[in-house]
């Protein structure tokens, strides 16, 4: 029976072998990394494959190898410049290591365990999670299936999986110290209404440092970790203006909205009337329109540590659980006055 109009016949390795005048095993060796095949045979196979439009069925091949060269990346909030750059670097790094990244978005309405479970159906070589902390049960299932799991900037899920975190407690404390050194004495911390593990940790460390120093601090938890969330939070900062002269925003994306709200809606001068510190050092923080003082957590360091843990786990599955901590550092710009004399 002829093929239906508009439907192209699927090309397989036998078709390529027939056109190239070689055996099917020669076709298989041509598309297998490290396999032995002469240049003449390889050239014939590649030419035939191109002519026929042949593509290797990677998933089918993985059934024979038990593992594919796919690595699942579960991420959320991809509109956030920090997260999008992080995922971009992870994807490039995986490709350089010979793996193919497969991205699944873990938004608020999505169960991260279900996403990881679906990745296991594809015989993935490993999983990286930058969205919500996965439940202990799915972590254990990954371990039992020999699939390395690395979680980034998330709390301990209760299972012995590898983790990469930034020194967010140190960052929160240093944000307090910088505002105090810049002359602030009445503080506020702006954070999303629904905070992640690391975001909440920054806020708590800032508040603890303020409490230890006997400095009043107001928490403004409002909206999402977005520019619009920061714009809305600026309204609350303005309402308590007489009680605040320094603001710590737990993410730069929030801080950009706070800055625009304070300056353009409420007419405040930054840093003359009020000082603002962010966290993340996203590219937009350095734009002249913002010139935001912030704390840098290097996306490159985070990605290098994540990929290193994954590769180590693939090479030696019996290694003990590892936790890598990446440092943060102050990037002073124009939204704070800085210590006297600077």
From TrEMBL:
Taxonomy, superkingdom: Bacteria
Gene3D superfamilies the record matches: 3.40.50.2300, lambda repressor-like DNA-binding domains
Pfam families xref list: LacI, Peripla_BP_3
CDD domains reported in the protein's UniProt record: HTH_LacI, PBP1_LacI-like
InterPro entries linked: HTH_LacI, LacI/GalR-like_sensor, Lambda_DNA-bd_dom_sf, Peripla_BP_I
GO molecular function, one term: DNA-binding transcription factor activity
Keywords: DNA-binding, Repressor, Transcription, Transcription regulation
Limits of the HTH lacI-type domain: 11-65
Protein name (database record): Glucose-resistance amylase regulator
């Amino acid at each position: 029976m002829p093929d239906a109009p508009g439907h192209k016949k699927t090309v397989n390795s036998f078709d390529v072998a027939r056109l190239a005048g070689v055996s099917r095993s020669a076709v298989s060796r041509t598309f297998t990394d490290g396999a032995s095949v002469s240049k003449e045979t390889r050239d014939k196979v590649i030419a035939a494959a191109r002519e026929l439009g042949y593509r290797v069925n990677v998933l089918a091949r993985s059934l024979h190898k038990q593992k594919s060269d796919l690595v699942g990346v579960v991420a959320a909030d991809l509109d956030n410049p920090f997260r999008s750059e992080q995922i971009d670097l992870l994807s490039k790094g995986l490709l350089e290591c010979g793996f193919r990244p497969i991205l699944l978005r873990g938004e608020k309405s999505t169960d991260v365990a279900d996403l990881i479970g679906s990745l296991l159906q594809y015989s993935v070589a490993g999983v990286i999670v930058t969205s919500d902390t996965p439940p202990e049960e799915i972590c254990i299932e990954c371990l039992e299936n020999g699939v390395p799991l690395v979680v980034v900037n998330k709390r301990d899920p209760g299972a012995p999986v590898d983790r990469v975190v930034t020194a967010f407690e140190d960052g929160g404390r240093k944000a307090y110290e910088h505002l105090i050194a810049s002359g602030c004495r009445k503080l506020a911390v702006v954070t999303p209404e629904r905070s992640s593990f690391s975001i909440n940790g920054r806020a708590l460390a800032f508040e603890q440092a303020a409490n230890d120093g006997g400095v009043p601090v107001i928490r403004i938890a409002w909206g999402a970790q977005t520019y619009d969330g920061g714009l809305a939070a600026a309204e609350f900062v303005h309402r308590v203006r007489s009680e605040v002269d320094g603001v710590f925003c737990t993410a730069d994306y929030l801080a950009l909205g706070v800055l625009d709200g304070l300056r353009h809606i409420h007419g405040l001068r930054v840093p003359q009337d009020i000082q603002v510190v962010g966290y993340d050092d996203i590219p937009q923080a350095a734009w002249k329109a913002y010139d935001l003082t912030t704390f840098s957590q290097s996306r490159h360091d985070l990605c290098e540590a994540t990929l290193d843990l994954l590769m180590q786990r693939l090479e030696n599955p019996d290694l003990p659980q590892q936790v890598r901590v990446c440092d943060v550092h102050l990037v002073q710009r124009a939204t704070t006055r800085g210590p006297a004399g600077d």
